[in-house]
Design a protein that fits this description.
Blueprint (H helix, E strand, L loop, with lengths): L10 H73 L12 E8 L2 E6 L10 H8 L4 E6 L4 E8 L6 E6 L1 H4 L11 E5 L5 E4 L2 H10 L12 E5 L2 E10 L2 H4 L4 E8 H4 L1 H47 L14 H35 L3 H15 L4 E7 L6 E7 L7 E6 L4 H5 L6 E3 L9 H5 L4 E9 L2 E10 L7 H32 L9 H18 L2 E10 L1 H8 L1 H17 L6 E6 L2 E9 L2 H16 L2 E3 L2 E3 L2 E9 L6 H17 L5 E3 L2 H23 L3 E9 L5 E9 L10 H11 L2 H21 L6 E5 L2 H4 L4 H12 L6 E6 L7 H13 L3 E7 L6 H6 L4 E4 L1 H4 L6 H16 L3 E4 L5 H9 L4 E2 L10 H24 L1
Parallel strand pairs: 22-23, 25-26, 26-27, 27-28, 28-29, 29-30, 30-31
Antiparallel strand pairs: 1-2, 1-5, 3-4, 4-5, 6-7, 6-10, 8-9, 9-10, 11-12, 11-16, 12-13, 14-15, 15-16, 17-19, 17-22, 18-19, 20-21, 24-25, 24-31
Helix pairs in contact: 1-7, 7-8, 8-9, 8-12, 9-12, 14-15, 18-19, 20-22
Amino acid sequence: MVFDRNYMRSTVARRMFMLFVLAALLPVVVAGVWSLITASRILTEQAEEQLKENAKTLGVSVYERLGMAEMTLKELAQQYQVDNISFGTHIGQQQFSAIAVLNDAGLTGIRGDLDSIPALSEENLEHIASGNPLLLSQRTAANFELLLLTAAGGSGEILVAQLLPDYIWGNSYYLPGQHQMCVLWSDRSPLYCSSEDMKLALTMAMPDSLDLDGDASIYWRQNDRKLLGQTWEVALERHFGHEPWVLLIGKPDHEVLANVTDFRVVFVTVFLAALLIAALITMSQIRKRMVPLEKLATYAGHVSNKRFHEPLEVDSGDEFEGLAISLRKMSRGLASHFSILATMSLVDREILSSPEPGAVVDIVLSRLRNIVPCDNAVVTVLDRAAPKMAQNYLLLAGEAQSKTKRIKIDRDLDLMFGDAKAGIFLDKEKPPGFCQALVVDGAASMFCMPIIKSEKIYGVLTLGYCQPPELGGNLMHQASEICGRLALAMATVERDEQLYHQAHFDNLTGLANRQLFAQRLNMEIRRAERDHSSLALLFIDLDNFKIINDVRGHSAGDQLIRKVAGRLSERVRDSDLISRLGGDEFTVLLSTIDGEEDAGRVAKEILESLQKPFTIDGSQHFISASIGVTLYPGDGRTVEELLRNADTAMYRAKEAGRDQCMFFQEEMNLAAVRRVKLESQLRTVVESQGMKLHFQPVLDAQTQEVVGAEALMRWPVSCDQGPSPDEFIPVAEETGLIVPLGYAALEEACRAMMAWRTKGIELENIAVNVSPRQFNEPGFVSEVLAILDRHGLEPHFLELEITESLLLEEVQRIRMVLEELCRHEIRLAIDDFGTGYSALGYLRRYPVQTIKIDRSFVNEIDQSESPQKLTRAIIAMSHGLGKRVVAEGVENQRQFDVLAAQGCDLVQGHLFSHAMPIDTFASYARKQNGKVMMKALVAGDK
């Protein structure tokens, strides 16, 4: 088998190779490692058992030799008792190297050299006296000496013999293999070792913590070899009076695992053989799979490069061969499809780049025969402005360019096609007018298909044939594709026009919207800058449009907006531009004006035009407008500056009384900046709950007793540093901050009322102003009741002051809220009465207990008779309806005298006191009511 490395360049081939090899070798490796570990464990356990047995055997042998030496020594002791053994006796020569007698005279040698023995303890002497031998050991410079002692007679003499090491340890020479033996002393130092190397290794490596009496194996290193050892204890205490010896038998680790080493060699050989076999099998399978796969991949690359006619031969007899057959079929289909798509893409590119349907139709007809075989053709495009007219684009037989002609449609296309949206064959005897030219050109058969999108017919495609055609499903589909593209082009043009109109014109009025106005204004600014000319911008806002919208409905409001747009268009030149910014706001751009006079004249004409009545649904309505005017370049050089300043001027016109025009001045900008700053400061005050509440006393007009108080908001700094209520209250109304401010005022007012009552100051009620915005908040009544409950204040002590304008909004809903407040005994007052839409109707209709005359009437009551008549009428009317009357803004004694004489019930104003903090008010109320009480007492005494 030839190993072709080219196959391994493939990622799939490398992945298959790795998977095959792993699948073959992984079980071998796992089994081999597991077998190696198991064999090592079993051999180690067997070696440990063998060493344990050898240690035991050697220990028994040593004990037996000590016993034989004891018998020999006792035999010598008997001879010594009988005839005193002579010096140089031969008994025990193989066992003892020296023999001596120990008595009171000292140590007397019998054989060999024995100079000294260790001192005997009382315990040793008792052991010998009992008839047992005594084994002593003493350390010499080079080794240990073993002495065996026994009693020699009744006179207390002791026979001492020095044991030969070869006799005691002789059996160690016959240990199998490379076994080694060592006898360990009580301090774990070697007493005797079969080799000096072992003795040296144990002396250096024996751990102090080793439990020599245990069954655990002992490992140590000796001459760079690892040894395995087992121990056996030789018990000597009972009989020989000596501490036990521990026999250590060791064996090299490589000898223990000799069979494992052989197994490793075999395993490596088997592993390499398995690796080679797996590699060979893998390469064979890779070659068998990769050859057809590479052919398929190569052919797929040809297809992706549009080389559809390259050969592909796969004879593997499996799924790869079936895949090759399918791929060849797909390639032939793609070749045909791409040919059509190439032509279609040219058409699509022209469609996207051509803004007019006529140009797109010309392109389609020039390439039509490449897509759908035909002799001649005509594309009929309906006129969007005149649906009964159309433009005919005719492609005659033998010609490459189309001709155009405007025609009249003589058929209802919706009825003509009906449910046959896929196309119909036409009768050449009675053809429709739009394809009559094809019959004249020689067409014997005609196939007609609508150009339709989203159920809307934009035109018709008619294919003419000199001979009856064979229109199969594929050709029908291609004709449908052509119609679809033509419909898309026509719908795109229509949609672009609609989108442009929607993006730049107002849907309601047809005027330019904000975006188009900004673009046009920017262009006019650049032109004026270039020509050193001027232009004017008029910002128009209808006055009180919301009232009409709310009362008559949004439909009436929309009609009014359209009529206003019509009147504005009548008052400007064709070169000027009118736009609707939204709602009831309009702008007028006056280009190329001579000066401020021209802009003022146009603004005046617009105001006069809007003052005329508007008839809506048979009813006449009157409105007015406020106009702000800016001039370029004096009032701004950008779109943003001109619009912003015109808006500012318009608001100043509204503040000045409405129905007028006002030109922008720089001081207006300063006022706008101040308002923005005030709004920011107001938000900070609301968030920090820093707004203060002062209280102005309300006095009985007859007794001048303090009977109530009105809660008034004050800035959290002194009046000469912070804005007045007339400044920040309107800003709070516009921004919606009046709602949290109003609830905070209710909280503080109820807290103050309870504090005064605790101090013995009995007031009828405390009045708190409620803005229309707060009154219209969902859950307003529930929140008021919750505040009263939190402070423990009974509802009849609270009076809510509302404005007249509130009573004109959504009558039924306002009535429901007011009646719910009254059911809970909360008092209601109409503030600033006489300045709005004062009418007896709502005074009679709504449950209001108090009428507060506006200070504008009270200010002039001491100067002329006319205000006096008004106040007299208001008081009389209110009393007639059972309402009590409060006069605000009483500044001098003359005003008070007139009001008191007219029967006004209550008064408040600077004549009596300014608004005061809570503690100051308490002091004032005590003092004032004390004076009233004193006057009453004096009058009573009189």
